[in-house]
Amino acid sequence: MISIPSRPREARWELPADPGVTARCRAVVRETLTEWDLRDLIDDAVIVVTELLANALIHGGPPVHLALAAVRDSLTGSVTDQGPGWPRLRTAGTEHEHGRGLRIVAALTDRWGVEPVPAGAGKAIWFTLTRRPAGEGAGQYPTPVSTPPSTVNSLPVQ
């Protein structure tokens, strides 16, 4: 029997450059993944989106966009901003307040990476999460890659 891929479920939001938007984004991610029947990815997706959104609001520049797409048991998301700086993995000591966000993203996701925004300054930080059998988690600190999965290409940033 031939399996025909499901049409991806997609959602995009333009976000104000206001730290208060983070709580609303967590709620929107929960609502969206519940609607898409991806409840088991909610906790990790909320944490990843929160970390990426915080980076975009602190280090990036407006406008900031959040995009999510789901195909079967896989979720791809991205946070895009217009800031010139690029994120990098850091090693934060116990006395440091910041510097752990991308390590958290790397620990929770299957893949993640950074791509330049096609029209000018800025970047999109994307990630993928996939449902797994019970007891199996994402890899330990996967290396970021520069080429996003094909579902990210279907999430144009406006």
Question: How do the helices and strands line up, and which of them pair or pack?
Answer:
Blueprint: E1 9-15, H1 21-35, H2 42-59, E2 64-71, E3 74-81, H3 101-108, E4 111-116, E5 123-130, H4 150-153
Antiparallel strand pairs: 1-2, 2-3, 3-5, 4-5
Rg from alpha-carbon coordinates? 15 Å
The CATH architecture term is: 2-Layer Sandwich
* Low-pLDDT ranges: 138-158
CATH topology name, in short, is Heat Shock Protein 90
**CATH superfamily label:** Histidine kinase-like ATPase, C-terminal domain
Average predicted confidence as pLDDT:
79
Helix content: 25-40%
The overall number of domains is: 1
Calculate the terminal CA-CA distance, rounded to whole Å.
39 Å
Strand order of the largest sheet: 1-2-3-5-4
Q: In DSSP terms, counting alpha (H) and pi (I) runs of 4 or more, how many helices? A: 4
Secondary-structure element string: EHHEEHEEH
Using the coordinates above, name the CATH class.
Alpha Beta
**Bulk shape:** globular
3D structure, described in words:
Helices cover 28% and strands 23% of the residues. Mean pLDDT is 79; it is low at 138-158. Strand 4 (111-116) and strand 5 (123-130) form a beta hairpin. The chain has 158 residues and is α+β, with helices and mostly antiparallel strands. The N and C termini lie far apart (39 Å). Helix 1 runs antiparallel to helix 2 (42-59) and helix 2 packs antiparallel against helix 3 (101-108). It has a single domain (9-153), classed as Histidine kinase-like ATPase, C-terminal domain (Heat Shock Protein 90, 2-Layer Sandwich). Strands 1-2-3-5-4 form a 5-stranded antiparallel β-sheet, with helices on one face. It has helices spanning 21-35, 42-59, 101-108, 150-153, and strands spanning 9-15, 64-71, 74-81, 111-116, 123-130.
